[in-house]
Amino acid sequence: MDNAADQNVEANPEEFYRSPTTTPEADPWALALEDIDLATGSIFQAQKHHEYFKRLRQENPVHYHDKNPEIGPYWSLTRYEDIMAVDSDFERFSSEPSIALYDEVLGEERAPMFIAMDPPKHNEQRGAVTPAVGPVRLKDLDKLIRERTVEVLDELPVGTPFNWVDKVSIELTTRMLATLFDFPFEDRRKLTYWSEVITTPPILMGLTIEERLNHLGECLQTFTSLFHERKFEGNESQDFISLLANNPATADMNGVELLGNLMLLIVGGNDTTRNSMSAGVMFMHDNPAEFQKVKDNEALIPSAVSEIIRYQTPLSYMRRTAKEDVEIGGKQIKKGDKIAMWYASGNRDESFFEDADKFIIDRANVRRHMAFGFGIHRCMGNRVAEAQLRIVWEEILKRFERLEVVGEPERVEHSFVHGIKDMQVIAHPRQ
Amino acid sequence: MAKIYVTDASGTDQVVDASNGDSLMNALLEAGVDGMLADCGGGCACATCHCYIEGDGMSLVGEVNAIENVMLDSAASERRENSRLSCQIDISDALDGLTVTVAENG
Ligand code: FES
C-alpha cells in the first residue's frame, strides 16, 4: 500500500520529530487549526491534550493536518459519534496496514498482526487466541489474580514513598502476561521490556535502530522456540502460544507474522492495564469524595473501574485507512487517507458524557466509554483487564486507609500509549 | 417489520417492534431491553448480546458464522444449542413472532 507518508518522509529516523507548533507551551486555543498536530507525544506528557481535543470538538471535529513529515497527512476524529461510526465500519475503513499513524516497520518488513488486518484473516487469527481470555478461562484466572494481588500489596513498604508503577502496576500486569503466554515466570520482565521496545521510538530509550531490531530478534527467537515446543497434536493448553501453534489458521505463520501477533498481544496486555492501574490511584487521590463512595460501597468497584478506564483512556487512538472516498462531518476524506479515531477525545465528549471532564465513579453511562473500541477489533482482553483492576481495588480497600500520591507523576511522551512511568505513593494502612 | 417476543435478563416479558434490515441486537438495545449490553456495538467481538432463540426460531435466524462460533464459546453465560449473538441476526418479515430470551451478559 502506498500511503502519503512514504512520499513525504524527510525526517531522519535517527532523530525524534517534534512538532514545531504543537508544543506543551503553545496555547491550544490560539494556534492556527491547521498547525495542530495531535500525534505529538509531548502534549500528552504535559496533559495538554484535553484542551486541544476540546477545541477541536467545538471548532473542527474532523480535523486535517499535513505537516508531520513522519506520518504525512492524516485526519483526526474527535467526537464520540464519528469515532463509533468509523470504528464499527470495517467495510469502508481498513485496519491495514497499521493501526498506528506511524506504520510499524521492522527493517524492511511490516510485521502483520491481526489487529491490523481486515476480515477474513483477522477473524481467523483473532478467533484462534480468543479462548485465552474468555469468561471460561477467566474463572480460573480470577483466583490467581487475587493471590498475586494479595502477595504484591502485602509486600509494599508502609509510610514511605515508593514507585507504584514499578512495584504494583508493572509487577501485576507482567505476571498476568506471563501466565497468558505461559512464559517462563522468572524471565517475565523481558516481556515488559519488549513491550517498551515495541512502542517507544528507539532514540527515547537510548537505543539505535539496530539495537532495537536485535531486541525484537531475541523476542522472536524466544517465542519461536516456545511456539515449536508447544506445537503437538492434542495440546489443549489455553495459553496464547499453544493456541496459536495448534490452530490451523495460525499454526503455519512465518517469523514476522508470529512476531507481529506477539507484539500485539504483549502490548495489548501490558501498557493498557498497567496504566489504568496507576492512573486509578492518582484519580482517587485527586478526588477524595469519589474514593469515599467506593469505600462506603464496594459494590461500586466495577463501575469505578470503568470510569478509571474512561478517564485515563490508556490507548489514545486507533488508526484506520479509508477504503473509498467518504464524507464525515462535512469533510471529504479520500480513499487511502489515514484517520485517527481519538478515543481520548471521544471519552471526554460533553455531548455524550455529562461533565465529561470530571471523574465520577458512578456516572450513569459509565460502561459506554470507548477505550476498548467498537466493532470487530474491540479489545479482546477487556474482561481480564477489568478483573485485574477490580481485584486490585478490592484488595486495596481491605488494607489501606488511602494511597497518597506525592509529587507529580512522570508521564511518557507518547501520543498512542497514554502512560505513567513513575508515580511515588505512600500507602497508609487501615487503622 | 417483525414483532419479537422478548424475555429480558431479569425475567420480564415484552414485545419489541423491529425494523427490517436492523440487527436483532439493535432492535433490543433501542427498546432498552434489560441485559442487552452489546459492548462492541455489533462487531461480533464482545459476546454481550447473547440470546437464546426459543421454539423453532433457530431454523429462521440463519447459521452461526465462524467468528460468532468462537465468541459464543467465550460468552459470560452458558452456551446452549439455541445460543446466538443477536448482532449477527438480521431482522426480516420472516422473523415476525420470534421468541428470544436474553442471556445474563454481565
Ligand atoms: S454486540 Fe458485541 S458481539 Fe454482538
Detailed description of the structure:
The complex is a heterodimer of chains A (431) and B (106). Chain A has 431 residues and is an alpha+beta fold. Helices cover 44% and strands 12% of the residues of chain A. Chain A has helices spanning 4-8, 41-45, 49-59, 80-87, 121-129, 135-154, 164-181, 189-199, 209-229, 240-246, 255-286, 288-296, 301-312, 343-346, 382-399, and strands spanning 62-65, 74-77, 93-94, 105-106, 109-110, 162-163, 317-322, 326-328, 331-333, 338-342, 400-405, 410-411, 420-422, 424-429. Chain A has a 5-stranded mixed sheet. In chain A, helix 6 runs parallel beside helix 15 (382-399), helix 8 (189-199) crosses helix 9 (209-229) and helix 13 (301-312) packs across helix 15 (382-399). Chain A is globular, with a radius of gyration of 21 Å. Chain A starts with a helix and ends with a strand. Residues 1-12 of chain A have low confidence and may be disordered. A 5-stranded mixed sheet of chain B has the order 2-1-5-3-4. The longest helix of chain B has 8 residues, at 66-73. The model of chain B has no long low-confidence stretch (mean pLDDT 93). The interface between A and B is medium-sized, with 24 and 18 residues. FE2/S2 (inorganic) cluster binds at residues 25, 38-40, 42-49, 71, 85, 87 of chain B. FE2/S2 (inorganic) cluster binds next to loops of chain B.
**Overall 3D shape of chain B:** globular
Helical/strand content category of chain A: alpha+beta
Average pLDDT figure of chain B: 93
Q: What percentage of residues of chain A falls in helices of 4 or more residues?
A: 40-55%
H-E string of chain B? EEHEHEE
Report the uncertain regions of chain A. Answer: 1-12
Q: Sketch the topology of chain A as an H/E string, one letter per element.
A: HHHEEHEEEHHEHHHHHHHEEEEHHEEEE
Beta-strand content bin of chain B: 15-25%
Question: Quick one: which chains have the greatest interface?
Answer: A-B, 24 and 18 residues
Shape of chain A: globular
As a whole number of angstroms, the C-alpha radius of gyration of chain A is: 21 Å
Could you tell me how far the N terminus lies from the C terminus of chain A, measured between alpha carbons in angstroms? Answer: 62 Å
Spans where pLDDT lies below 50 across 5 or more residues of chain B: none
Total helix count of chain A? Answer: 15
Bound compounds = FE2/S2 (inorganic) cluster
> What is the helix fraction of residues of chain B, given as a range?
10-25%
Major sheet of chain A: 5 strands, mixed
The fraction of residues in strands of chain A falls at: 5-15%
Mind summarizing the main beta sheet of chain B? 5 strands, mixed
Keywords (chain A): Heme, Iron, Metal-binding, Monooxygenase, Oxidoreductase
Pfam family, one (chain A): p450
InterPro entries (chain A): Cyt_P450 (IPR001128), Cyt_P450_B (IPR002397), Cyt_P450_CS (IPR017972), Cyt_P450_sf (IPR036396)
GO molecular function (chain A): heme binding; iron ion binding; monooxygenase activity; oxidoreductase activity, acting on paired donors, with incorporation or reduction of molecular oxygen
